[in-house]
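Please fill in the sequence for the structure shown.

STRUCTURE ENCODING:
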């Protein structure tokens, strides 16, 4: 009740301040609140709005606490009501002199917007607040419509591909993105407030000013073409149109600029295409959608043999080709894919045919509708013929074994045949464009590939050798011939080369040289052996004579026996020299392996330096079926190889002999040997050793790691061949820096060797034989005379065959036996035998030689020789042969 009374009092207090008639006449919803926020008065519009919206009038009119009403508001408008209450408090407290707020207040029937305003009201000593709510829905809707219109306009202008600028007072107020791109600007600020005329080309400035005045008076102007410049000063050809429009109460110009650069470019390209079409060397034609020709260029007329367009235009495309069905295929492809390319057989006006390569495409308008077809054709008859010829030539080149390559003038590879690809084990494409060096290294003189190219370019040719290293490591030598390649005008265009493999030929030549060297060495060795045999014959002969004379002197007899043994060993050495020179026979027989080793070691100790220690480890004794001389050669070659591996720093050479068995299971270490019992000979050194590549080739003929002139590369190859011929195997174990061990396996000979049955010595009755002895070595005549005399023969010695023949002619019946040397000057022993037999056919002849291969059995029989004695002979051997020959003569 008190609150109502106070409200009434406040209302009366306000009557003088707010006349009720004027207060109610206001359309705004107005209420006055005291300093506590209670409503003191409301106008009619306030009351009617509350009633119309179904509100409890008493709760929102006089006496109501309006601040509490706002604070307790709920729903989606609660936040706005509370914000409005805060504004009322700010005005009542004096913090603000005015509070305004625009807010939505929608009803189920319509969307509404209100503008709320709070102002202070001072009545006496009290501060009041006047609250006014005004319905601004119409204004708000008008504003929203204007904003939407501006957005639509801005969106349309911004999206326009044409440049649009708004000009006021001659200065730019707005520029769309297309205008920014046209001007070369990165942002709108680079253009705003700039004088538009600064972008107009000076030649067109006056015309633009006149057009601007025309727009201001008429409201628009027809499009005009002119030049503008961008920020970088680049001239741009545009089409410009302007209209007048209001903006902010002023008249402004909207200018639309269309960039004609692309259109001009298209026009120029079209003009250029027409020029190209008309002047092209390729035959061009255009057909409509019915495939009938509508236009042809001069090249088409020439290619198909027509005189003018009228003879070709109007015909279907199929008319110009030999196979009409192919035209159907072409147009089906064009309609499906839009283009076609390929070769066709064309028919000229006179009926002759040629091959053409054609490229055809569809012609469509801007909407994509098919309006025709265009095509270009080239006569490739000669090209096809040349290509076929080149394919045939390429096929021929692919079949030959010689390497064929081509390069450009800089030496970059442009062609290789199949032989090159096969040798280098790579596809030809991987070599194209690469330098000539990839094919091989130049080996003749000091020339390199640049010198080869320079010589070919300057002289027109080059010839030399190239070495190729195949991927597998095989090294091949080729004889290369290059020629400068010129075109039809004689201008150099490239280089062609042909390489012939001469690896085998060089190997054969090298092999032949080695054979010739060996033959020379063999000839020399044979000559030395011949002289040595004569010397040894004298040594052994005189030693045996001395032995006969020293029967009563045991100590002297022993010394002479040693001399004789040394002579016999020397004779064995001569046999080995003759075997090496291929003048001795190869004899396979049971051999004491350990004896061969001992003999080799004796020779080695006399020749090896003191820095190399020789060790022997013979664990077993037995026989091997072998040629003793060849076995001796194998050991010498292996030991010599070991010496070369240790000659710089010295070391230990070890020969080890042991028994070895291979069972029935295959052996990984010795896969090429059958099961059985073997002698295992190991020749080891502590030298430099070998790497894997060297081990793989160590037994190859002519392969050597020695310096030039230190070896032939045949020693180990010969050893390998000898061991293999004896049904054995030879292997090597080695690592770099750890020395090497050569292992030789030879089958053991386990059968017993029966000793030769002893033969009773045969004596020759003294004085019962007269011997004619012939040798050009005088001292051999003397030793023979003494030796034969001790045997009881009467000897007549001669130093030449001629002297002996003269003597025999006069004393043929006095001679019982002739012993003659084979090799003598002027007349050899075999010729002397023939001459003697002509004088006296029954005269026995014994021929002496140090080289058994010089005479064959057939030759001996043809010359009438009865027996052969090998030099150096010893007394017992000579006596045995004489006895056998004389017994055959006398038939005993």
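FILLED IN BY: designer on duty
SEQUENCE:
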């Amino acid at each position: 009740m008190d609150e109502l009374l106070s409200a009434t009092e406040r209302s009366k207090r306000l009557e003088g301040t707010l006349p009720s008639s004027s207060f109610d006449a206001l359309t705004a919803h107005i209420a006055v609140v005291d300093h506590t926020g209670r409503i003191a008065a409301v106008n009619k519009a306030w009351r009617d709005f509350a009633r119309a919206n179904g509100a409890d009038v008493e709760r929102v009119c006089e006496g109501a606490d309006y601040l509490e009403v706002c604070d307790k508001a709920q729903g989606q408008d609660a936040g706005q009501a509370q914000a409005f209450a805060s504004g009322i408090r700010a005005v009542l407290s004096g913090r603000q002199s005015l509070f305004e707020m625009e807010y939505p207040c929608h009803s189920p029937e319509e969307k509404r917007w209100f503008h709320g305003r709070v102002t202070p009201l001072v009545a006496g000593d009290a501060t009041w607040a006047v609250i006014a709510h005004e319905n601004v829905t119409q204004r708000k809707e008008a504003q929203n419509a204007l904003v939407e219109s501006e957005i639509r306009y801005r969106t349309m202008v911004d999206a326009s591909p044409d440049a649009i600028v708004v000009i006021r007072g001659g200065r730019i107020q707005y520029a769309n993105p297309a205008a920014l791109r046209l001007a070369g600007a990165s942002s709108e600020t680079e253009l705003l407030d700039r004088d538009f005329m600064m972008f107009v080309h000076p030649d067109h400035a006056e015309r633009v000013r006149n057009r601007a005045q025309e727009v201001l008076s008429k409201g628009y102007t027809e499009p005009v073409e002119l030049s503008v410049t961008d920020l970088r000063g680049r001239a741009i050809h545009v089409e410009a149109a302007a209209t007048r429009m209001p903006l902010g109460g002023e008249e402004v110009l909207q200018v639309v600029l269309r960039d004609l650069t692309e259109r001009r470019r298209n026009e120029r390209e079209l003009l250029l295409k027409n020029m190209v079409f008309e002047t092209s060397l390729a035959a061009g034609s255009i057909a409509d959608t019915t495939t009938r020709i509508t236009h042809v260029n001069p090249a088409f007329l020439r290619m198909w043999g027509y005189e003018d367009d009228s003879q070709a235009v109007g015909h279907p495309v199929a008319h110009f080709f030999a196979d009409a069905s192919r035209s159907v295929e072409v147009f089906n492809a064009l309609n499906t894919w839009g283009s076609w390319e390929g070769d066709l057989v064309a028919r000229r006006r006179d009926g002759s045919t040629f091959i053409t390569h054609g490229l055809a495409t569809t012609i469509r308008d801007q909407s994509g509708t098919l309006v025709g077809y265009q095509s270009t054709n080239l006569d490739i008859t000669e090209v096809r013929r040349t290509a076929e010829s080149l394919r045939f030539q390429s096929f021929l080149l692919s079949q030959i074994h010689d390497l064929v390559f081509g390069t450009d003038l800089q030496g970059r590879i442009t062609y290789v045949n199949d032989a090159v690809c096969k040798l280098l084990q790579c596809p030809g494409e991987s070599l194209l464009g690469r330098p000539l060096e990839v094919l091989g290294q130049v080996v003749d003189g000091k020339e390199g590939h640049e010198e080869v190219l320079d010589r070919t370019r300057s002289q027109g040719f080059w010839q030399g050798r190239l070495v190729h290293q195949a991927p597998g490591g095989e090294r091949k030598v080729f004889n290369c011939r290059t020629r400068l390649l010129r075109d039809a005008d004689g201008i150099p265009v490239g280089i062609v080369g042909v390489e012939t493999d001469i690896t085998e030929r060089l190997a054969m030549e090298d092999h032949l040289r080695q054979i010739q060297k060996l033959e020379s060495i063999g000839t020399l060795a044979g000559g030395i052996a011949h002289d040595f045999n004569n010397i040894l014959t004298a040594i052994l002969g005189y030693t045996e004579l001395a032995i006969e004379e020293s029967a009563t002197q045991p100590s002297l007899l022993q010394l002479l026996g040693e001399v004789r043994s040394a002579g016999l060993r020397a004779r064995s050495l001569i046999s080995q020299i003759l075997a090496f020179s291929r003048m001795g026979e190869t004899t396979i027989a049971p051999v004491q392996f350990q004896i061969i080793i001992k003999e080799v070691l004796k020779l080695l100790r006399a020749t090896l330096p003191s820095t190399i220690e020789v060790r022997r480890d013979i664990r077993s004794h037995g026989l091997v079926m072998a040629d003793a001389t060849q076995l001796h050669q194998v050991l010498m070659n292996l030991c010599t190889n070991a010496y070369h591996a240790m000659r710089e720093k010295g070391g230990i050479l070890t020969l080890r002999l042991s028994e070895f068995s291979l069972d029935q299971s295959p052996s990984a270490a010795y896969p090429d040997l059958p099961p059985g019992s073997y002698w295992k000979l190991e020749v080891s050194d502590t030298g430099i050793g070998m790497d894997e590549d060297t081990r793989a080739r160590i037994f190859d003929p002519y392969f050597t790691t020695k310096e030039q002139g230190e070896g032939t590369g045949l020693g180990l190859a010969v050893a390998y061949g000898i061991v293999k011929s004896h049904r054995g195997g030879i292997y090597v174990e080695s690592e770099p820096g750890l020395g090497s061990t050569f292992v030789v396996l030879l089958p053991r000979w386990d059968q017993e060797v029966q000793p030769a049955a002893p033969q009773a010595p045969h004596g020759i009755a003294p004085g019962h034989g007269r011997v004619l002895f012939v040798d050009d070595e005088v001292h051999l005549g003397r030793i023979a005379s003494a030796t034969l005399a001790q045997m009881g023969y009467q000897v007549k010695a001669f130093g030449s065959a001629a002297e002996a023949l003269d003597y025999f002619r006069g004393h043929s019946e006095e001679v019982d036996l002739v012993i003659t040397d084979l090799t003598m000057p002027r007349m050899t022993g075999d010729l002397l035998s023939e001459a003697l037999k002509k004088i006296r056919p029954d005269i026995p002849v014994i021929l002496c030689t140090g080289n058994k291969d010089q005479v064959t059995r057939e030759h001996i029989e043809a010359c009438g020789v009865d027996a052969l004695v090998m030099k150096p002979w010893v007394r017992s051997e000579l006596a045995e042969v004489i006895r056998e020959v004389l017994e055959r003569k006398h038939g005993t």
